[in-house]
Amino acid sequence: TMGSIVDPAQINNVVGLKPTRGLVGTDGAIPISKRQDIIGTLTRSFKDAAYMLSNMAGRSELDPMTWQIPFEPIPDFTAYCKGTDLQGVTIGVPRNTTSSNRSAPIMESFESALTTLRSAGANVVDSADFPAVDEFKKLDQQIKGIVRSSEFKRDIVDHLATLEINPNDIHSVEDLINFTKSSPAEDYAEHDIRKFLWTQAEGIDVNSEKYSLMVKQEQYYGGEGGILGAMEKYSLDVLVTPLH
After folding, report:
1. pTM (predicted TM-score)
2. Across the strands, what pairs with 63?
Protein backbone atom coordinates (compact mmCIF):
# COMPACT_ATOMS: atom_id res chain seq x y z
CA THR A 1 0.00 0.00 0.00
CA MET A 2 2.80 2.42 0.82
CA GLY A 3 5.70 1.17 -1.28
CA SER A 4 6.21 -2.28 0.26
CA ILE A 5 6.52 -3.77 -3.23
CA VAL A 6 8.02 -1.07 -5.44
CA ASP A 7 10.57 0.25 -2.93
CA PRO A 8 12.44 -3.03 -2.27
CA ALA A 9 12.17 -3.88 -5.96
CA GLN A 10 13.99 -0.71 -6.91
CA ILE A 11 16.63 -0.94 -4.18
CA ASN A 12 17.43 -4.60 -4.94
CA ASN A 13 17.14 -4.34 -8.74
CA VAL A 14 14.40 -6.97 -9.07
CA VAL A 15 10.91 -6.99 -10.57
CA GLY A 16 8.17 -5.76 -8.27
CA LEU A 17 4.63 -6.61 -9.40
CA LYS A 18 1.78 -4.64 -7.86
CA PRO A 19 -1.39 -6.12 -9.41
CA THR A 20 -4.69 -4.33 -9.84
CA ARG A 21 -6.63 -4.34 -6.55
CA GLY A 22 -9.14 -7.15 -6.66
CA LEU A 23 -7.09 -9.47 -8.85
CA VAL A 24 -5.39 -11.12 -5.84
CA GLY A 25 -7.26 -11.62 -2.56
CA THR A 26 -5.91 -9.86 0.51
CA ASP A 27 -7.78 -11.87 3.15
CA GLY A 28 -5.39 -12.79 5.94
CA ALA A 29 -3.12 -9.78 5.37
CA ILE A 30 -2.74 -7.24 8.19
CA PRO A 31 -4.49 -4.20 6.67
CA ILE A 32 -3.54 -0.60 6.24
CA SER A 33 -6.55 -0.08 4.00
CA LYS A 34 -8.52 -3.10 2.78
CA ARG A 35 -9.76 -0.97 -0.12
CA GLN A 36 -6.23 -0.15 -1.25
CA ASP A 37 -3.98 -2.95 0.08
CA ILE A 38 -2.37 -5.10 -2.59
CA ILE A 39 -0.45 -8.37 -2.34
CA GLY A 40 2.28 -8.60 -4.98
CA THR A 41 5.57 -10.27 -5.73
CA LEU A 42 9.32 -9.68 -5.90
CA THR A 43 10.95 -11.81 -8.60
CA ARG A 44 14.09 -12.05 -10.71
CA SER A 45 12.29 -11.54 -14.02
CA PHE A 46 8.99 -10.45 -15.54
CA LYS A 47 8.23 -14.00 -16.58
CA ASP A 48 8.71 -15.21 -13.00
CA ALA A 49 6.23 -12.52 -11.92
CA ALA A 50 3.79 -13.75 -14.57
CA TYR A 51 4.09 -17.32 -13.27
CA MET A 52 3.37 -16.10 -9.75
CA LEU A 53 0.40 -13.97 -10.80
CA SER A 54 -1.14 -16.83 -12.78
CA ASN A 55 -1.22 -18.88 -9.57
CA MET A 56 -2.10 -16.13 -7.08
CA ALA A 57 -4.92 -14.40 -8.95
CA GLY A 58 -8.51 -15.48 -8.52
CA ARG A 59 -11.69 -15.03 -6.55
CA SER A 60 -11.66 -15.39 -2.77
CA GLU A 61 -14.79 -15.97 -0.71
CA LEU A 62 -13.28 -13.74 1.98
CA ASP A 63 -12.40 -10.78 -0.26
CA PRO A 64 -15.44 -9.28 -2.04
CA MET A 65 -13.23 -7.12 -4.25
CA THR A 66 -12.11 -10.26 -6.09
CA TRP A 67 -15.67 -11.21 -6.99
CA GLN A 68 -15.63 -8.80 -9.94
CA ILE A 69 -12.68 -10.42 -11.78
CA PRO A 70 -13.92 -10.41 -15.39
CA PHE A 71 -12.41 -13.70 -16.51
CA GLU A 72 -12.65 -17.32 -15.44
CA PRO A 73 -10.44 -19.26 -15.46
CA ILE A 74 -7.47 -17.03 -14.69
CA PRO A 75 -5.31 -16.77 -17.83
CA ASP A 76 -1.71 -17.91 -18.12
CA PHE A 77 0.01 -14.53 -17.94
CA THR A 78 3.30 -16.01 -19.16
CA ALA A 79 1.68 -16.23 -22.60
CA TYR A 80 2.18 -12.46 -22.87
CA CYS A 81 5.91 -12.62 -22.12
CA LYS A 82 6.98 -12.96 -25.73
CA GLY A 83 9.67 -10.95 -27.48
CA THR A 84 10.87 -7.40 -26.98
CA ASP A 85 9.14 -5.65 -29.88
CA LEU A 86 7.36 -2.58 -28.50
CA GLN A 87 6.14 -1.23 -31.83
CA GLY A 88 2.76 0.43 -31.34
CA VAL A 89 3.20 0.89 -27.57
CA THR A 90 3.02 4.49 -26.31
CA ILE A 91 4.80 5.19 -23.03
CA GLY A 92 4.37 8.44 -21.10
CA VAL A 93 6.92 10.12 -18.81
CA PRO A 94 5.17 12.42 -16.29
CA ARG A 95 8.13 14.67 -15.51
CA ASN A 96 6.15 16.86 -13.11
CA THR A 97 5.86 13.95 -10.66
CA THR A 98 9.66 13.72 -10.32
CA SER A 99 11.33 15.92 -7.73
CA SER A 100 14.36 17.94 -8.78
CA ASN A 101 16.55 16.40 -6.05
CA ARG A 102 16.47 12.81 -7.36
CA SER A 103 19.96 11.35 -7.21
CA ALA A 104 22.05 11.53 -10.39
CA PRO A 105 22.69 7.74 -10.62
CA ILE A 106 18.94 6.99 -10.43
CA MET A 107 18.12 9.55 -13.13
CA GLU A 108 20.96 8.33 -15.35
CA SER A 109 19.65 4.77 -15.09
CA PHE A 110 16.12 5.99 -15.79
CA GLU A 111 17.16 7.89 -18.90
CA SER A 112 19.14 4.86 -20.08
CA ALA A 113 16.00 2.73 -19.64
CA LEU A 114 14.01 5.20 -21.77
CA THR A 115 16.63 4.87 -24.51
CA THR A 116 16.26 1.08 -24.35
CA LEU A 117 12.46 1.38 -24.64
CA ARG A 118 12.80 3.63 -27.68
CA SER A 119 15.26 1.25 -29.31
CA ALA A 120 12.69 -1.55 -28.84
CA GLY A 121 10.21 0.45 -30.90
CA ALA A 122 8.16 2.21 -28.22
CA ASN A 123 6.85 5.71 -28.74
CA VAL A 124 8.02 7.57 -25.62
CA VAL A 125 6.06 10.76 -24.88
CA ASP A 126 8.17 13.02 -22.68
CA SER A 127 6.51 15.38 -20.21
CA ALA A 128 3.19 13.54 -20.28
CA ASP A 129 2.41 15.40 -17.09
CA PHE A 130 -0.36 14.86 -14.54
CA PRO A 131 -2.85 17.77 -14.77
CA ALA A 132 -3.30 18.44 -11.03
CA VAL A 133 0.09 17.49 -9.63
CA ASP A 134 0.95 21.04 -8.43
CA GLU A 135 -2.32 21.19 -6.51
CA PHE A 136 -1.64 17.77 -4.98
CA LYS A 137 1.88 18.71 -3.88
CA LYS A 138 0.51 21.60 -1.84
CA LEU A 139 -1.31 19.21 0.51
CA ASP A 140 0.62 18.26 3.64
CA GLN A 141 1.25 14.62 4.48
CA GLN A 142 -1.43 14.40 7.17
CA ILE A 143 -4.11 15.78 4.85
CA LYS A 144 -3.04 13.29 2.17
CA GLY A 145 -3.30 10.54 4.76
CA ILE A 146 -6.86 11.25 5.96
CA VAL A 147 -8.41 8.48 3.85
CA ARG A 148 -5.75 5.91 4.68
CA SER A 149 -5.77 6.76 8.40
CA SER A 150 -9.57 6.52 8.57
CA GLU A 151 -9.62 3.18 6.80
CA PHE A 152 -6.79 1.80 8.91
CA LYS A 153 -8.64 2.82 12.08
CA ARG A 154 -11.65 0.78 10.94
CA ASP A 155 -9.93 -2.12 9.17
CA ILE A 156 -7.44 -2.97 11.92
CA VAL A 157 -10.35 -3.42 14.34
CA ASP A 158 -12.02 -5.85 11.93
CA HIS A 159 -8.74 -7.74 11.47
CA LEU A 160 -8.00 -7.99 15.20
CA ALA A 161 -11.50 -9.37 15.77
CA THR A 162 -10.67 -12.36 13.54
CA LEU A 163 -7.65 -13.46 15.60
CA GLU A 164 -8.11 -16.68 17.51
CA ILE A 165 -5.20 -15.79 19.80
CA ASN A 166 -4.60 -12.19 20.94
CA PRO A 167 -2.10 -12.47 23.82
CA ASN A 168 -1.72 -8.71 24.34
CA ASP A 169 -5.45 -7.99 24.21
CA ILE A 170 -5.15 -5.47 21.38
CA HIS A 171 -8.48 -4.61 19.76
CA SER A 172 -8.08 -1.08 18.34
CA VAL A 173 -5.59 1.53 17.20
CA GLU A 174 -5.77 3.05 20.67
CA ASP A 175 -4.73 -0.30 22.16
CA LEU A 176 -1.95 -0.56 19.59
CA ILE A 177 -0.61 2.90 20.47
CA ASN A 178 -0.70 2.18 24.21
CA PHE A 179 1.00 -1.19 23.76
CA THR A 180 3.73 0.34 21.59
CA LYS A 181 4.40 3.04 24.17
CA SER A 182 4.42 0.69 27.15
CA SER A 183 6.19 -2.41 25.83
CA PRO A 184 10.02 -2.26 26.08
CA ALA A 185 10.30 -4.61 23.10
CA GLU A 186 8.75 -1.93 20.85
CA ASP A 187 11.62 0.49 21.60
CA TYR A 188 9.39 3.54 21.85
CA ALA A 189 10.16 6.46 21.19
CA GLU A 190 12.96 5.41 18.82
CA HIS A 191 10.30 3.99 16.48
CA ASP A 192 8.06 6.58 14.87
CA ILE A 193 4.32 6.07 15.58
CA ARG A 194 3.24 9.36 14.00
CA LYS A 195 0.95 7.67 11.48
CA PHE A 196 -0.73 5.71 14.26
CA LEU A 197 -1.31 9.01 16.07
CA TRP A 198 -2.88 10.56 12.97
CA THR A 199 -5.82 8.18 13.48
CA GLN A 200 -6.64 10.07 16.69
CA ALA A 201 -7.12 13.44 14.97
CA GLU A 202 -10.57 15.01 14.67
CA GLY A 203 -12.58 13.77 11.69
CA ILE A 204 -10.49 10.64 11.13
CA ASP A 205 -13.41 8.28 10.68
CA VAL A 206 -14.91 6.57 7.63
CA ASN A 207 -18.29 8.07 8.56
CA SER A 208 -17.02 11.67 8.72
CA GLU A 209 -17.64 14.42 6.19
CA LYS A 210 -13.88 15.03 6.02
CA TYR A 211 -13.30 11.42 4.95
CA SER A 212 -16.01 11.55 2.26
CA LEU A 213 -14.55 14.77 0.84
CA MET A 214 -11.02 13.38 0.74
CA VAL A 215 -12.14 10.14 -0.94
CA LYS A 216 -13.55 12.26 -3.78
CA GLN A 217 -10.32 14.30 -3.94
CA GLU A 218 -8.24 11.12 -3.90
CA GLN A 219 -10.23 9.74 -6.82
CA TYR A 220 -9.71 12.99 -8.71
CA TYR A 221 -5.95 13.11 -8.10
CA GLY A 222 -5.58 9.48 -9.15
CA GLY A 223 -8.07 9.84 -12.00
CA GLU A 224 -8.66 12.81 -14.30
CA GLY A 225 -6.25 14.98 -12.30
CA GLY A 226 -3.50 12.35 -12.39
CA ILE A 227 -2.91 8.99 -14.04
CA LEU A 228 -6.12 8.70 -16.07
CA GLY A 229 -6.00 12.35 -17.13
CA ALA A 230 -2.48 11.97 -18.52
CA MET A 231 -3.22 8.65 -20.21
CA GLU A 232 -6.27 10.05 -21.98
CA LYS A 233 -4.67 13.34 -23.01
CA TYR A 234 -1.56 11.72 -24.51
CA SER A 235 -3.19 8.44 -25.66
CA LEU A 236 -0.84 6.37 -23.49
CA ASP A 237 -0.64 2.63 -22.89
CA VAL A 238 1.88 2.81 -20.02
CA LEU A 239 3.38 5.37 -17.62
CA VAL A 240 6.97 5.19 -16.38
CA THR A 241 8.64 7.20 -13.65
CA PRO A 242 11.67 6.80 -11.37
CA LEU A 243 10.92 6.12 -7.73
CA HIS A 244 13.05 7.50 -4.91
Report:
1. 0.84
2. 60
